[in-house]
Write a structure and sequence with these properties.
Structural class: mainly alpha
Helix content: over 70%
Distance between the termini: 40 Å
Order of helices and strands: HHHHHHHHHHH
Shape: globular
Number of strands: 0
Strand content: under 5%
Number of domains: 1
Length: 232
């Protein structure tokens, strides 16, 4: 699932440009210097985001692992996949769905405003810390990735999935800081519509995984191959 996580992060990050781009540009202005200095700070900032995503992956991977031990892993995977495909067929992405709820719009606006003030007040903090805080920003793309982490099969797999997802988002987030407003023109091409496509791909994969793959038995099978029982 690592390649899927990277794909979701890379192509879905065009969606992040509009939401997180201004915040990233604000952080980049806190450390004046040459281009390479700015790139270094932004790499640190983005690695902070990746760390937060990885920790979220641990939490949701643990939820998935609990479901697996309860015998619900396959059902959870199939239900999640069907949900994502239904959203795609309705031409709705997770962000649009959540935006219909007033509490979500309010929390998103409140957190974005708070983070903007936080950047101004905490200029002395390392950019990696600012990035870690930014990783908690409400985002439909992150929720999509968390579904993948939850059905990945365990704590380690969940952390790995979210880390790969975060790494996939870095090119776009670096690009918006380096090229500035020029990159925002990408939105005019409506490439943010790639998010529903990512939902469809992940939905199909989750259904396939839940329907075909029997994880606990497969793990036991390969474990026995690696350490065969020997009679003396």
């Amino acid at each position: 699932m690592i390649y899927l996580a990277l794909t979701i992060g890379f192509f879905g990050s065009l969606h992040c440009v509009g939401m997180c781009g201004p915040l990233a540009m604000g952080v980049s202005r806190l450390h004046p210097g040459g281009r390479w200095s700015m790139i270094g700070h932004m790499l640190s900032y983005n690695m902070g985001r990746v760390v937060t995503y990885g920790l979220l992956g641990v939490v949701f991977g643990l939820i998935g692992q609990t479901a697996m031990l309860s015998g619900l892993q396959k059902s959870l995977s199939i239900v999640s996949g069907v949900f994502l495909i239904i959203l795609f067929l309705m031409t709705i992405d997770i962000e649009t769905l959540l935006s219909r709820f007033g509490w979500y719009r309010q929390s998103l606006g409140s957190y974005t405003s708070w983070f903007s003030r936080f950047i101004g007040r905490m200029k002395h903090l390392p950019t990696v810390v600012l990035g870690a805080v930014n990783g908690l920003l409400p985002c439909g793309l992150v929720y999509l990735a968390l579904l993948g982490a939850m059905t990945s099969g365990g704590v380690w797999n969940g952390a790995l999935f979210m880390t790969a997802f975060g790494m996939g988002t870095i090119p776009a987030m670096l690009g918006v800081v380096i090229f500035g407003r020029e990159l925002f023109s990408i939105r005019s091409l409506r490439l943010q519509r790639l998010l529903p496509v990512m939902q469809l791909c992940l939905g199909v994969y989750l259904i396939y995984r839940g329907w075909v793959v029997d994880m606990p038995q497969e793990l036991d099978f390969y474990s026995l191959l690696a350490q065969p029982v020997r009679c003396h």
